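For this section, I looked closely at the sequence of one protein beside the tokens encoding its backbone, which the following lines show:
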Amino acid sequence: MFPSRILLVEPTTFIHTPHHIQAALHSTGFENARFTLLTATRNELYRERLRTLAAEHANLSLRLLDNSHLPNGKRLATLRQHHFTLKAAETLLAEESFDLVAYLMADHILPFFSHPLADRFFPAHRAAGGISGLLFNHNGLRPAEGQRWKQTLKAALERQILSRAVRGGWFRRLAFFDHRCTGEARRKIDPTLFVDGVDPIELQTVDQTEARRRLNLPVDGRVALMFGAISGRKAIDETLDILSREAAPQGPRITLLIGGPVDPPVRPRLEAALARARERFDIVFHDGFVPDCDLPLFFASADFVVCAYRNFLASSGTLLHAAAFGKPAMVSAGGVMEDAVARFGCGEVVRFSDPSHFAERFFALARADGQALEAYRQGARHYAETMDARRYMAQFL
């Protein structure tokens, strides 16, 4: 029997939060459940998006907290913001009863529940019978390549925190997006609590030819997409420089489709890299925020998606959208994106430290056709099906 009254806690709203809430509302078997979302944000755009979502769904009650009085920064500031929402959840649980309590991002609340006095600090959480959480972080269970002693120490501390929280009986279930990380958690901590997570995405079918026409792209030839907020982490300037200087084999003309707002510190490097890349590629650059309604056009237009980020271990909305449209992706080594591409055969894995192999894999995707292209497409769709938004709530049961 499915729970009928559900509390979802998102300690700090982030860009993907509305997608997760939509997935919860539309999950198979939960269409008639009543949801309460407790979350905090200082971003007025996020606040308005959540208010709109709540207004559109009668079975969603929004408890929106303002955390603007708290510091905004790195780890300690993040812990303070999560504690603020956690205490609000404690008050709500003392006043109302729920069949299921789920924290959508559990990694930064784990230290509070691993504390020896957690039972005293959070009695209402304890009385609720346990928490289901969705972990975005790798929590030190999957060490990064070539990590320094500080990272090794941090990973050991994270494993200890997770182990204490789990063995204290605070969690019914935890989910990771990285199945290798899940396996490590089962092996080292508790084999009964961990599942592969669902990062929700809607499966898509959009005509490629029509999408290219609407974006003024050539109907023939190959299109490689680089999408999303262009920060230093996205390393688009480095990607363009590698593709500009490495030898290119004979093949179809390639158009680089780039869309997203540019962080000011990155712009000088990006514009220089674009100038060099235009000597080899046709480039269509949509400089600025891409509205949600136009997002399908970008992914439908592409033959493959480039999301080779630097030093990035988490999941990626860009990779998920690529999979939803059946497009292969090129990702950098390390973390959840490599895990997905290697597991489902839905693209190529590259390293910035090996630019020749980086360019070789890019042009291999650009030349892929027939059986090779179909294998990529099937892998991408299979990955998207495991992340089908209708399965979202099942990970918490």
